[in-house]
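Appendix B, Record 12. Input sequence as logged:
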Amino acid sequence: MPISVNPQKRRTSGDPLDLRIEATCTLEDHEETIDLNIKKMLELNIPAKSIVTITHNTESFLYNQSVLKFIISHLRRTVAKHDLKMVSITLEELHNVVCEFK
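Logged structural output:
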């Protein structure tokens, strides 16, 4: 599963801004990334919609808890707004769900 990215925003490397917990961006950037991805998946009628956020396992997670809480909170609002269902799932489980649609 690809990581959710914002193709309208770039990191200093030139890569699209990804939905990374420790990214040096604003909460509004994360919000925009989620909104753009949900909107695109709805437009394309993707059967298994997914937002994939990541973090480095070498970072102090305690420092970034507020970012993760913000992302989860915004996802809950967005899912409710679009009458979708939010589930927590591993990448392997999501892969299996997507394979069922083939």
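The chain has three helices and two strands.
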